[in-house]
Amino acid sequence: MKKATGVKAAVAAVLFCVLPAACPPAHAGWEGKGAQMVGEIITNPGAFFNDFQQDLEATQPLPPGDWLGFQTGVFPTTLPMTMLNASAKIRLHEEGRLASGLPQLDLFGGCWDMVGAKLAEKHMSDDVNSASFRGNYFGAMLASSLSPRVRLFWGYKHSKLRADLNLKKSVDILGTQVSSFQSGFEDNFFIAGIEHATGLDKFWSIQLNYGLSTKSVASKISWYGRHFEWGINIYPEGVLVLHPVLNYHLNF
């Protein structure tokens, strides 16, 4: 019984938003809602994990005067999802340097790997055949000033990930049988947004991402300073519509 409960807990941790069936619901209606969410995740795991990938992506332009940046997602990616990740940005052209009116040009990209899945595969080999969750993205961004404090930015992003889980036998998570899934996600996105400087190394921005193949829309509202970005990502078609986000970055 303890072993079965442990498997349920491991799978539930990977799925992030549910508790093992052995645990009583915190309040009335939670179990039914949890079962619905699990069903949606199992139906399309790739889209579910792509929302978390977007949480860690570094898709704002580099601040004026900086030429290189590094970023890692803290919440909800590294914690609690165990998605170790790293992103980088490099400025290829400073706004107005070659000719007046030419926008800033940045390249960006990053990758992640879910170490929790690897640990489950290693330490629960009697129950887990394989578990692999990883992804990457890259793109280019243009930014142009409307005023000394306001910039428009727009660009292109390519995102790709794999989400694979294979258990040796199925387990019941809130009434949903989970045994395995093999899923991926790949799309090209158009990105557009506006950034406003509120002080020295202090900004807020609003960003819209549109998936050209999936026809999906996501938006991001962010406040960021010299090292930290706080934000709320909104996924209207996602299992979890609102994602509070915390990222750490270092620019040069």
Structure description:
- The chain has 252 residues and is α+β, with helices and mostly antiparallel strands.
- It has one domain.
- The protein is built from four helices and ten strands.
- The chain has helices spanning 2-15, 30-43, 45-56, 115-123, and strands at residues 68-75, 83-93, 104-114, 128-147, 150-173, 176-199, 202-211, 217-224, 228-234, 242-251.
- Strands 1-2-3-4-5-6-7-8-9-10 form a ten-stranded antiparallel β-barrel, surrounded by four helices.
- Helix 2 (30-43) packs across helix 3.
- The longest helix is centred in the N-terminal third of the chain and has 14 residues, at 2-15.
- The radius of gyration is 20 Å and the shape is elongated.
- 36% of the residues are buried.
Q: Which percent bin holds the helix content?
A: 10-25%
Identify the strand order in the major beta sheet. Answer: 1-2-3-4-5-6-7-8-9-10
| Average of per-residue pLDDT values | 87
**Strand percent estimate:** over 45%
Defining key terms:
252 residues; alpha+beta; disordered N terminus; 10 strands; 10-stranded antiparallel beta barrel; elongated
Topology:
Blueprint: H1 2-15, H2 30-43, H3 45-56, E1 68-75, E2 83-93, E3 104-114, H4 115-123, E4 128-147, E5 150-173, E6 176-199, E7 202-211, E8 217-224, E9 228-234, E10 242-251
Antiparallel strand pairs: 1-2, 1-10, 2-3, 3-4, 4-5, 5-6, 6-7, 7-8, 8-9, 9-10
